[in-house]
Amino acid sequence: MNSDGLEAVSLRLRRRILETSHAARIPHLGSCLSCVDLLVCLYWDILEIDSSRPDAPDRDRFVLSKGHAAPALFQVLAERDFYPKERLAAFGVNGSVFHEHPPAPAHLPGVEAATGSLGHGMPMALGMALAARMTGRSYRCYALISDGECNEGTIWEAAMLAAAQAVDNLCVVVDFNGWQATGRSREVMRIDPLEDKWEAFGWHVVMIDGHDFSAMAGAFEACAATRGQPSVVIAHTVKGKGVSFMEDDNNWHYRTPNEDELRLALEELKDHR
Q1: What is the residue range of 228's domain?
Q2: Number of domains observed in the structure of the chain
């Protein structure tokens, strides 16, 4: 799919994420909007997957390590026909599998791991990548983490192991939107220079604009061609991307839109991202 087609998908998904966040009063809206473009690029252009065979042994694996962005993942999986879109009407309802974080894989096709406690999804993706090597399979594994998640020690333990084992079928994507729960990522912890840190751990590093589909496609292709080391794509994104009054405003990590805010946001998303 070309960039215009991918942008149209992202626009549609942003609207649905806003609508479900409003209806269910589920937060983390800004975190969902910052990573939608990355998810769309992966699920429409990169991942070797088949919604009619969600458990195919040779499928690529994607793990949403920043599990609080599950509302975005749920919309992506529905759009890719892993389950009917109508099921998302149960988002946030007691007893539903659709909540703030991904459920166990047995409960929802397309989900590879239950995540939410930050720092643990990436090591699980590493385990899946190692399993491919041990079983002689060629699938690739991807994990989406946040810049705030880079505070977690398990991220760097997994980074050391992946490099030591030369796990070149693993690609980590950092959704670098500049925020975490309580403030600017660079102010809460000294994560800079993030590129140098990953390189020092033995990773192939690519820096991109996480809202530029051409840049994303080029980065993922370069990572797939890299041999002998794992890859990380550091994607600079905007929290709340697509809605002017939500962009780069960390209040939308916790808030959900009221009726007037929803109307204004959907109006903005009619004609542009």
Answers
A1: 3-268
A2: 1
Kindly state whether residue 273 falls inside one of the protein's structural domains: no
Instruction: Name which of 270, 267, 261 is nearest 30 in CA terms.
Output: 261
Q: Which helix (H) or strand (E) holds 131?
A: helix 121-134
Q: How far apart are CA 58 and CA 63, in angstroms?
A: 16
The residue behind tokens 């102010």 is: 187
- The per-residue pLDDT for range 120-173, each reduced to its tens digit, is 999 999 999 999 999 999 999 999 999 999 999 999 999 999 999 999 999 999
- Collapse the DSSP code of 259 into the 3-class scheme (helix H, G, I; strand E, B; otherwise coil) and give the result: helix
Q: Give, as one character, the DSSP assignment of residue 61.
A: E
Q: Are 171 and 204 in contact (CB under 8 A)?
A: no
Confidence tier at 270 by pLDDT (50, 70, 90): confident
Residue 252, domain member (yes or no): yes
Residue 76 C-alpha from the chain's centroid: 10
Q: For residue 212, what is the domain's CATH number?
A: 3.40.50.970
CB atoms within 10 A of CB 136: 6
Confidence of residue 273 (pLDDT cuts 50, 70, 90): very low
| Residue 145: φ, ψ to 5° | -120, 165
Residue 193 lies in a domain: yes
